Amino acid sequence: MSELFRIENLHARPVTDDGESADDILRGLSLKVAAGEVHAIMGPNGCGKSTLASTLLASPEYEVTSGDIFLNDENITDWTTDVRAKAGMFLAFQYPQEIAGVSVIQFLRQALSARKGIDLSVLELRLSAMDWMKRLGMDSSFVDRYLNEGFSGGEKKRNEIMQMALLEPEFAVLDETDSGLDIDALRIVAKGIREVRVDRPNLGILLITHYQRLLDELQPDHVHIMIDGRIVKSGGMELAAELEKNGYEAYKA
User: Fold this and answer.
1) Which of 29, 39, 188, 219 lies most in the core, judged by the most C-beta atoms within 10 Å?
2) What region holds the ABC transporter domain (predicted)?
């Protein structure tokens, strides 16, 4: 398979308000994802997983101090969040934010317009959304609610999978998509991810998670262990099983 996404020796740190230099949280992380592959990153709290997700989508809260990020062989390290999104990157947040006064359907229409440069009618978009709401076990009135306002944890995560389906990104970062989900909601979300992959077999996915249960549902191609801001070991599902049994202590220097 052709290479879709690459990180080379990435170092990144928080941006501080007082002008003081913070220490790097990402400390030389490298990774390659081919088209159609699913990679999972696992690691203990504080190892830099969410920093990685934020840095990949150019959050202003973090700055790259060295290293490079590539999408389809283009160096996107200096690209802003909106430019990366238009180029085909997607981030599902660990804690999706509420946006009062903006309905799900309005949000999707604006996002699709920016991503694809087309102005879909609300009716066209509603029909596409209805199909995915059915697949994800969501009520048909869902798209008329304000974005994430009063949503349950499962509704927030299913909404993000619907966004990923409709926006048709090339590379998706799913930051602890299993966080706060009971087993039934997890299975629905995992089924949605699998269905998106059926529709878009070249989609590359980077899963960031603490737990094996999502990996059991999705069976990633590669599993990586992240400690202190870098990947210390890579393997397959057997590595996730090893972690479940022994924990992270064996990988800490």
Assistant:
1) 29
2) 5-253
Closest CA to 211 of 13, 43, 8: 43
- Return the bridge partners of 205, or none: 38, 172
Q: Which two tokens stand for residue 174?
A: 């799913």
pLDDT tens string 49-96: 989 999 999 999 999 999 999 999 999 999 999 999 999 999 886 666
Instruction: For residues 204-213, give the mean pLDDT.
Output: 89
At 232, the pLDDT band (50, 70, 90 cuts) reads very high
**Could you please report the per-residue DSSP string of 35-70?**
TT-EEEEE--TTSSHHHHHHHHTT-TTEEEEEEEEE
Which sign, positive or negative, has the C-alpha torsion 135, 139, 141, 143?
negative
Most confident segment among 131-140, 167-176, 181-190: 167-176
From CA 117, how far away is CA 162, in angstroms rounded?
Answer: 19
Cβ–Cβ < 8 Å for 25, 9: no
Q: Which domains does the chain have, with CATH numbers?
A: 3-95+169-251 (3.40.50.300)
Residue 87: both structure tokens together: 């180029």
Q: Give the separation between CA 220 and CA 38, rounded to whole angstroms.
A: 5
CA 7 to chain centre: 15
DSSP tag of 228: T
Residue bearing tokens 């926006």: 167
pLDDT on residue 152: 73
